[in-house]
Specification:
single chain, 408 residues, mainly beta, AttH-like fold, 14-stranded antiparallel beta sheet, 10-stranded antiparallel beta sheet, 2 helices, 48% strand
């Protein structure tokens, strides 16, 4: 299949009222498997798209010539805000919750994925030549109306269509971008994105707490073999302000965001079907990240891990045996009946934390090249016996029935 170099592919979806990492890395890995970008019209909400599974996308493949995440490393800024082309896959992933003066509330996701099709650039004297492909996912959840809208874009990393730089900080796919405002530091930066259907987001993003080094000093092991890992950093509470545009109306908003930065060459092992990932911002000033790797045999994976971030930014790393998650409810996709978890009880007994996580809108499914559920959550429960609330995001991969079908 041929890659159409100068065009954008946009996929837009709308959830019916009252009914949504990552994804992180897996979506862009589809490009590696396919080796090309298909050009097609946006699907209707009822159209089921053929995709690949999370395990196929991140189980490894041909890693020869690429750098691997094998051991902890020092992180250097501003360099590590920018791209790491020696690694096959990389992403800049942002979610957040936004509130308007009139009481309306919104969730959003904006993710930029970079994927290398080969370890070195092609030796061709053309401005269009590149080994880098880019994918973007953008979604807004309007809590009041129960709507979840989303879009997908692709571009090659050539002739200014897509790319990333560390200093000045900038990540972009055509009109979607993160754009730093001062040399030598990514923060604050501007976030700008607009869908073909008119929904848009423009925010100023401040750093908030310092970055959390996930896993072992930033090395997040996700598979049993050496190198089945990513370098993983999180900014867990970033102040936000700007505008959300829905139905042609720009609305002033403020809120808090979360940003994950990861790069790797392979991650999941062959035993994995997908993962459930949670990022929570509690109203007592703490944050929590935790993910469960879902195995084909149904066993609890020993590599599950997370982090609890204190008010002052100090981090307690959590193993899978320290966090208990119980599914409380399920939701069926109107696309094909795929069943996703839709409500959880999350407990950390050693911290006396007992939380109920509820989707703010039931249908926040991403009907894109790689189908997954990525959505805003409401949090309520107790911490050390006292009431605690908050908000968060969940990412659920490896559930869609079509993930086992080959691409058409």
């Amino acid at each position: 299949m041929m890659l159409h170099t100068g065009m954008r592919k946009a996929r837009a979806g709308r959830a019916t009222p009252g009914l949504v990492t990552v994804l992180g890395a897996v979506v862009v890995a589809v490009l590696l498997v396919w080796g090309a970008v298909r050009m097609a019209a946006p699907p209707e909400r009822s159209e089921v798209r053929a995709t690949l599974s999370a395990a196929e996308a991140l189980a490894g493949g041909d890693t020869e010539g690429f750098a691997r995440a094998l051991e902890p490393r020092a992180f250097v800024f501003p360099d590590d805000h920018g791209p790491h082309p020696d690694y096959r896959t990389e992403w800049w992933y942002l979610t957040g919750h936004l509130d308007a003066v009139d009481g309306r509330s919104f969730g959003f996701q904006l993710t930029f994925f970079r994927n290398a099709l080969s370890p070195t650039p092609p030796e061709r004297a053309s401005a269009w030549s590149t080994n880098q492909l880019w994918m973007g996912h953008f979604a807004i959840t309007d809590v009041e109306s129960g709507r979840h809208v989303h879009e997908e874009r692709f571009a090659r990393g050539a002739v200014g269509l897509a790319g990333a730089t560390a200093d000045p900080f900038r990540v972009w796919i055509e009109g979607w971008e993160l754009d730093g405002e001062r040399p030598g530091d990514a923060f604050p930066f501007r976030l700008r994105a607009a869908m073909a259907s008119g929904e848009a987001l423009e925010l100023e993003v401040a750093e908030g707490k310092p970055p959390v080094l996930q896993g072992d000093a930033g090395l997040s092991q996700k598979g049993p073999e050496p190198g089945n890992a990513s370098y993983y950093l999180s900014w867990t509470r970033m102040p936000l302000r700007g505008t959300v545009t829905m139905d042609g109306e720009p609305v002033a908003v403020t809120g808090e965001g979360w940003m994950d930065r990861e790069w790797s060459t392979s991650a999941l092992g062959e035993v994995h079907r997908g993962w459930d990932w949670f990022s929570l911002q509690l109203d007592d000033g703490r944050e929590l990240m935790f993910f469960e790797l879902r195995r084909a045999d149904g066993a609890r994976d020993p590599l599950n891990h997370g982090a609890l971030v204190a008010v002052d930014g100090t981090v307690r790393h959590l193993g899978g045996d320290q966090v208990e998650i119980e599914v409380l409810d399920r939701w069926r996709s109107p696309l094909d009946g795929t069943e996703y978890p839709s409500g959880w009880r999350l407990r950390i007994p050693e911290e006396e934390i007992d939380l109920t996580l509820t989707p703010r809108v039931r249908d926040q499914e991403m009907n894109v090249t790689f189908r997954y559920w990525e959505g805003a959550l409401a949090v309520e429960g107790t911490a050390a016996g006292a009431p605690v609330g908050g908000r968060g995001y969940a990412e659920l991969t490896g559930y869609a029935a079509t993930e086992n079908r080959p691409p058409s």
